[in-house]
Design a protein that fits this description.
Elements: H1 31-42, H2 50-82, E1 85-86, E2 93-94, H3 98-105, H4 109-149, H5 160-173, H6 183-209, H7 229-246, H8 253-257, H9 266-296, H10 314-350, H11 355-358, E3 361-365, E4 369-373, H12 375-394, H13 398-426, H14 433-465
Antiparallel strand pairs: 1-2, 3-4
Helix pairs in contact: 1-6, 1-9, 2-7, 2-9, 2-13, 3-4, 4-5, 4-10, 4-12, 4-13, 5-12, 6-9, 6-10, 7-13, 7-14, 13-14
Length: 473
């Protein structure tokens, strides 16, 4: 992602001791800040649904699928990290975005396909986060309402005011110029993700220790009066999709890597950050998923925090939901910065003489000092955040559709492109042992994506049947 330069003449070459060797803003990121970005992106609110996912798959398949996807994600992320510089992974030319990497390694129509998959996914995630954050804030309002007025009270606050509040916060934060300035927000968001995960984990452990009887099985939720065989299949598909997409951060991996200092080599630091990020998230996923399943059994809720009710301990549930909202505020910025950077780069290239697009105005911000403000950035980013909030209000079931968007992006961005670029860069002979097993991995993940897409479509159709615009449920 291209850094913004403070200059009145875009054609002038910037001379700055703080600039990198290619004239861009000097990178200061480390494996620690990259790990924070990864954890912020990966440990999303999806961790809350893992107890439900394992309840559909059971004690054998559930943990096995979790471990399998952690290995796949880490492996393909190392392949993608080596593609950041081309043709040499250490001394080659930098590529600032995922599309640049695909262009350097593969070229042709695959660059366009990569862009469609990446940016459609990023837009979908930002809309989904707007919905999920508002749900968490509403959960706080409901728990306090029940605590004050009793458990039989009518406590159904609307999501829409909180979507608007979330959008206002994101409008302010969206003026952070680029990924390089986002580390503090990612670290805060990562801390919040640990906090609500630990609260949910602690409540699950307490429930298990309390001796509450639940039914768990090796194969998960059983077919019976409350679950037909077809519903079992759909839920299994959705569970596999939930787990697969819970690990997918390849969409923004290159943009994260572009924040790293050049020494030690970026690919080595990124591999270390990926190992830390994926290992940490897998540990949390296993704990929250498995212990959550033990606590709730085959009836585990989609969000295991709400499974403890909106009642007592209401204050602890409130803290967890506030942490979710804060985490999603940071995660929203991690996912939308590549979109901002892409549009702003294209506009500067298309209208290089426009001062509205290129000129930076330095503003003195209290307690901060000088801060660059760009009129185009202000208008465009505000418009984007407002649009995503509006779509979230119109389609509040969008999280179901998000699974379908994820199904369309997981395979190409996390598996297909990293493997194809590695084969092309290393000139691996067709039908050789390495070529064959890489292709088997690729096609297997394609099948998983298709299966998850089918499950998501079924869930989407179910949502559409009961859809009533602007109606509070």
């Amino acid at each position: 992602m291209e850094a913004l330069e403070i200059t009145n003449e875009p054609s002038q070459k910037k001379v700055d001791v703080d600039a990198d060797d290619d004239g861009r803003e000097k990178r200061t990121g480390s494996w620690l800040t990259a790990s924070a970005h990864i954890i912020t992106a990966v440990i999303g609110s999806g961790v809350l649904s893992l107890a439900w996912a394992i309840a559909q798959l059971g004690w054998i398949a559930g943990p096995a699928v979790l471990i399998t996807f952690s290995f796949i994600t880490y492996f393909t992320s190392t392949l993608l990290a080596d593609a950041y510089r081309a043709p040499d992974p250490v001394y080659g030319t930098r590529n600032y975005t995922y599309m640049d990497v695909v262009r350097a390694s593969l070229g042709g129509k695959k660059v366009l396909l990569c862009g469609i998959a990446q940016y459609v996914n990023l837009v979908g995630v930002t809309i989904g986060y707007t919905i999920t954050a508002s749900i968490s804030i509403v959960a706080v309002k409901r728990s306090n309402c029940f605590h004050d007025k009793g458990h039989d009270a009518h406590c159904k606050p609307s999501d829409y005011p909180y979507m608007a509040l979330f959008a206002l916060i994101e409008i302010v934060l969206s003026q952070i110029p680029n990924f390089h300035k986002l580390s503090w927000l990612s670290i805060l968001a990562a801390v919040m993700s640990f906090a609500y995960s630990l609260i949910g984990l602690g409540l699950s452990i307490a429930k298990v220790a309390g001796g509450v009887h639940t039914t768990t099985t090796l194969t998960g939720a059983e077919v019976g009066p409350n679950l037909s065989s077809s519903e079992k299949v759909w839920r299994t598909f959705q569970a596999i999709g939930d787990i697969a997409f819970a690990y997918a951060y390849s969409t923004i991996l290159i943009e994260i890597q572009d924040t790293l200092k050049s020494h030690p080599p970026e690919n080595k630091m990124m591999k270390r950050a990926s190992l830390v990020g994926v290992s940490t998230t897998t540990l949390f996923y296993m704990l929250c998923g498995c212990i959550g399943y033990a606590a709730f059994g085959n009836d585990a809720p989609g969000n295991f925090l709400t499974g403890f009710g909106f009642y007592e301990p209401f204050w602890l549930i409130d803290i967890a939901n506030i942490c979710i909202a804060i985490h999603l505020i940071g995660a929203y910025q991690v996912f939308c910065q590549p979109i901002f950077g892409f549009v702003e780069k294209k506009c500067r290239q298309r209208w290089p003489e426009s001062k509205f697009i290129t000129k930076e105005h330095v503003v003195n911000v209290p307690c901060h000092g000088a801060y660059p403000i760009n009129k185009f950035r202000l208008v465009w980013r505000t418009s984007y955040v407002a649009l995503t909030a509006f779509i979230a209000m119109i389609f509040p079931f969008f999280n179901s559709f998000l699974g379908l968007i994820g199904a369309g992006s997981f395979y190409p961005l996390t598996v297909y492109f990293p493997i194809e670029m590695y084969i092309a860069r290393m000139k691996i002979p067709k039908l050789s042992f390495t070529w064959v097993w890489l292709k088997i991995l690729s096609y297997t993940c394609l099948v998983v994506s298709l299966v998850a897409a089918i499950g998501s479509v079924q869930g989407l159709l179910t949502d559409l049947k009961k859809y009533k615009p602007f109606k509070t449920e």
